[in-house]
């Protein structure tokens, strides 16, 4: 029976309502996309966290660490309990690592350089790497620590001692130390979470008491719900015109950079773009300012910010000067190209599931026509695109993708795109083969001094601009429409922002105003 006190308490509880297009994967060992990240960063914790408002990583579950060659030793806090009440120990860290490697799903590839993990004592863990890998600390933001004891008590069917490694259980239940507990999880509809009042860092009273993350809402539905005061934060996938309308009606526009960009990829192995001068001509002819205008929501806010080169602003090696169109330079490069415009027609592809890309294909077609270059625009479904790029001869002259650094480190953005060993994926349809690029990418993984890494990636950026495998459209900026009932400093104040997709949705850092 509900007592008056219980009713009063329920009526004063604050509720945050938000949505994501994709369904949410609750198992942290399988988390990969944006919805999964939101769940992971709230229900689970990691050894380190990105520094708010700047580069680098700060202690979190680990209170300190030291590196000795290929060994990394982490000292854990001794005041952390899982939501089950079980204490956090080094064995949980080892188990979480081994589980992720064994499952081989999600973002497990960022730990390819880690040979083993071992518990030295109850609160000390060592990771042994196969070779020097300076982005290792960054990778740890993708190693959520799970409650070994709880998972072992809930192993499902499977072969061997570990059976299913708790996959069935963790697909619907949480086993973390995080600031929010899972109340219910329906991956087709919504995940309901509530405050973990025993969280080791504490959860401010102003943070939402309950969170409802809904999946698959139509843009029109989200627009109506926010306008009626029945929704708090939209997904990042609303069309610019819907965001613009909501902003005009008084909604907040929250932003997250996340270390990603919009890339226009050029197939360097197929004529005419196997000639660097032809590629440079296209890069100089592209209208960067018009591209930003196309994704503008208000006079001050857009779904992208001006690019300065191959590395998004805020990362190691990013340049400072914004890219601009230079048609005269484009004409000169084309004159130096061994191919004549009347002898070829470019294939400009766009991904069918991303309608904004058709607008960019039309922009490129118009830009290139000013050089006398003919082009054909082709809509390609994502599944077909990923098949096409497996061979350079099947890969379009021009492809369009959005990519981001999944750990916030430039290595996880640039290596999968440009190293010659990984050509032929959706991230690398350029099929770039450049010894200098390979050398600098490898160096970026091995040097540990921040100043030297900065210099290495700056040199890499210069080289990419020199050989032009890609047109760097804009640095991606995710935009979210929000009611005025919520304050989200990590999504509105650059000095409190994280350089990692999804981390800005740490609910414990939000405030419900009730307005």
From TrEMBL:
Location in or out of the cell: Periplasm
GO molecular-function terms, A-Z: peptide transmembrane transporter activity
A single BP term in Gene Ontology: peptide transport
Record carries keyword Transport: yes
Keyword set, alphabetical order: Signal, Transport
Pfam families: SBP_bac_5 (PF00496)
Presence of the UniProt keyword Plastid in the record: no
Residue ranges of every copy of the Solute-binding protein family domain listed in the record: 57-422
GO cellular component, one term: ATP-binding cassette (ABC) transporter complex
Protein family according to the UniProt entry: Belongs to the bacterial solute-binding protein 5 family.
UniProt name for this protein: ABC transporter substrate-binding protein
